[in-house]
């Protein structure tokens, strides 16, 4: 009897303990709220956005004294974005390399960066623009500097490829300035002289025909985004029959056609070369550098528009692609019929005056976009979609929420995707964002709360988790905590409990 009484008491204790627990949400149990737990939080609602500066140990790779290998050095970097991290690492790298190369750069000269946007990060690709001091180095010395820099930047999880420019131009790795370096990857454990020998093996022997020397290289291809929203990029291995600028330009355009077809819905029949009157031509500019001339048919803009492509973005993609890969290309001249293009108009980026008919890389820096994952609605579930954003703001939570508020593109709407947020919410309804450890605090307006209530209980969960999944995916936060006018609320439309914190819910997404 005593034994039964003890067992009964133990059961009651267990039941009491279980009654205070909340079942955590998983991908399989998406019908249960992921708030942990339904109780008040100790956080203070943010008034305005606080900077998201994060510190981390990063690795610099520098050549050893005998320049046979790279040695890793740990340094501390505090930054607010990938772009900032990459630029800080690059500057530290160039300072250290300048000391190692002392005496080989000329009197009082150091390796440094060039231009207003010297380090560009997008799509896992980082392009570094060096000043002309780097031209004082021999080809082998410059290549080792570039390998060390690429290895340092590729050590970041978000970067896979690195391009090196000098004063907005790709640099040739042979005496004629014709051998393309191409995109670089990290080589933390490889022999530097062997890597240089592999590059040298691609050179055209003295006296041989450049057009008959094959080339295999990694190239970054910049492609126009749909609806004139800028340009994106990706890397591919290209094979060429020869190394003349014309051959390289034609090969880039052929491959770019494939990239555009894969990334835009209506461009299946696209052929850039069919829109041209003849093959690309190269010439020398009076102030230095080479010029590539592209001559298009008079109806080229109309044909591109029929395929959902913006002329300005298409020419931006061509200019970036040519100047990034082909050695010495300083500008692109575009002719439409028998007239030189002197002005470009873009709905997203305004009017660009083309001085002297020369399209230069610096004109299109704003066109290069980053990418953010936003969660839109489809058939009662969420679907992850990539949307272009400012490439320096990919991890910024305000940018992510603004991209989510913009809703689906025309092509996404045709595919059945819908906005997960009400039309009546705007960026001004985000009153403040801050971070506390791994929790992101988001303070929204009373108007935002009213829109949720009007949206209805059936769509409330999708609305909530479209924000939660977007913010967790884009910022690396584990939890999201919502406030409305500085206060947490428990119920809005009635289907979920808003107080506490939310975790990413992959179970609600396709």
Please give the structural blueprint:
Elements: H1 2-18, E1 48-49, E2 54-63, E3 70-79, H2 82-100, E4 119-122, E5 125-130, H3 139-154, E6 161-166, E7 169-170, H4 192-200, E8 215-224, E9 231-240, H5 245-263, E10 281-284, E11 290-296, H6 300-306, H7 311-325, E12 329-336, E13 339-340, E14 343-346, E15 350-353, E16 358-359, E17 369-378, E18 381-390, H8 397-405, H9 410-414, E19 430-436, E20 439-444, H10 446-455, H11 457-475, E21 479-484, E22 502-503
Number of strands: 22
Helix content: 25-40%
- Taking all Cα atoms into account, the compactness measure Rg is 27 Å
Q: Describe the main β-sheet briefly.
A: 5 strands, mixed
Sheet with the most strands: spatial strand order: 1-19-20-21-22
Report the β-strand fraction as a percent range: 25-35%
Runs in which pLDDT lies below 50 for 5 or more consecutive residues are 1-6, 8-33
Distance between the termini: 56 Å
Provide a descriptive summary of the structure in words.
This protein is α+β, with helices and mostly antiparallel strands. The chain folds into three domains: 23-51 and 369-508, no CATH class; 53-203, no CATH class; 207-359, no CATH class. 28% of the residues lie in helices and 26% in strands. It is built from eleven helices and 22 strands. The chain has helices at residues 2-18, 82-100, 139-154, 192-200, 245-263, 300-306, 311-325, 397-405, 410-414, 446-455, 457-475, and strands spanning 48-49, 54-63, 70-79, 119-122, 125-130, 161-166, 169-170, 215-224, 231-240, 281-284, 290-296, 329-336, 339-340, 343-346, 350-353, 358-359, 369-378, 381-390, 430-436, 439-444, 479-484, 502-503. Strands 1-19-20-21-22 form a five-stranded mixed sheet. A hairpin with a 2-residue loop joins strand 19 and strand 20. Helix 5 crosses helix 7 (311-325). It is globular and about 80 Å long.
């Amino acid at each position: 009897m005593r034994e039964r009484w003890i067992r009964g008491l133990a059961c009651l204790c267990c039941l009491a303990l279980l009654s205070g627990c909340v079942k955590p949400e998983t991908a399989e149990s998406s019908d249960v709220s992921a708030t942990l737990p339904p109780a008040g939080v100790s956080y203070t609602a943010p008034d305005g956005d606080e900077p998201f500066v994060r510190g981390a140990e990063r690795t610099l790779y520098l050549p050893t004294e005998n320049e046979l290998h790279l040695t890793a050095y740990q340094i501390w970097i505090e930054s607010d974005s990938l772009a900032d991290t990459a630029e800080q690492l690059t500057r530290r790298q160039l300072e250290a390399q300048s000391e190692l190369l002392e005496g080989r750069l000329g009197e009082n000269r150091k390796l440094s960066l060039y231009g207003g946007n010297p380090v560009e990060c997008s799509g896992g690709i980082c392009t570094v623009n060096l000043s002309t001091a780097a031209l004082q180095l021999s080809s082998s010395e410059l290549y080792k500097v570039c390998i060390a820099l690429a290895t340092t930047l590729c050590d970041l999880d978000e970067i896979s490829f690195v391009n090196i420019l000098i004063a907005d131009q790709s640099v040739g790795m042979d005496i004629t300035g014709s051998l393309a370096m191409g995109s670089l990857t990290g080589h933390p454990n490889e022999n530097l002289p062997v890597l240089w020998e592999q590059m040298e093996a691609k050179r055209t022997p003295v006296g041989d025909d450049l057009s008959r020397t094959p080339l295999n290289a990694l190239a970054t291809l910049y492609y126009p985004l749909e609806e004139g929203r800028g340009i994106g990029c990706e890397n591919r291995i290209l094979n060429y029959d020869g190394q003349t600028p014309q051959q390289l330009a034609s090969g880039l355009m052929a491959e770019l056609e494939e990239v555009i077809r894969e990334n835009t819905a209506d461009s299946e029949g696209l052929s850039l070369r069919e829109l041209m009157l003849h093959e690309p031509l190269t010439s020398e500019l009076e102030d230095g550098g080479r010029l590539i001339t592209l001559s298009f048919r008079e109806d080229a803009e109309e044909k591109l528009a029929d395929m959902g492509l913006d002329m300005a973005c298409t020419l931006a993609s061509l200019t970036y692609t040519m100047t990034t890969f082909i050695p010495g290309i300083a500008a692109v001249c575009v002719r439409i019929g028998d007239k030189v293009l002197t002005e470009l108009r873009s709905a997203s980026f305004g009017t660009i005056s083309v001085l002297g008919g020369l399209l230069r890389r610096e004109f299109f820096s704003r066109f290069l976009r980053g990418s953010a994952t936003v969660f839109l609605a489809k058939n009662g579930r969420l679907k992850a979609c990539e949307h272009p954003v400012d490439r320096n703001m990919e991890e910024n939570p305000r940018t992510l929420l603004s991209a989510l508020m913009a809703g689906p593109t025309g092509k996404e709407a045709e595919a059945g995707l819908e906005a997960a947020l009400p039309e009546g919410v705007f960026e001004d309804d985000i009153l403040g964002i801050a971070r506390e450890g791994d929790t992101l605090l988001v303070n929204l307006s009373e108007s935002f709360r009213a829109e949720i209530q009007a949206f209805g209980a059936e769509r409330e969960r999708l609305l909530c988790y479209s924000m939660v999944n977007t913010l967790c995916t884009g910022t690396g936060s584990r939890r999201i905590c919502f406030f409305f006018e500085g206060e947490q609320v428990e119920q809005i439309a009635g289907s979920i409990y808003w107080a506490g914190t939310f975790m990413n819910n992959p179970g609600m997404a396709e």
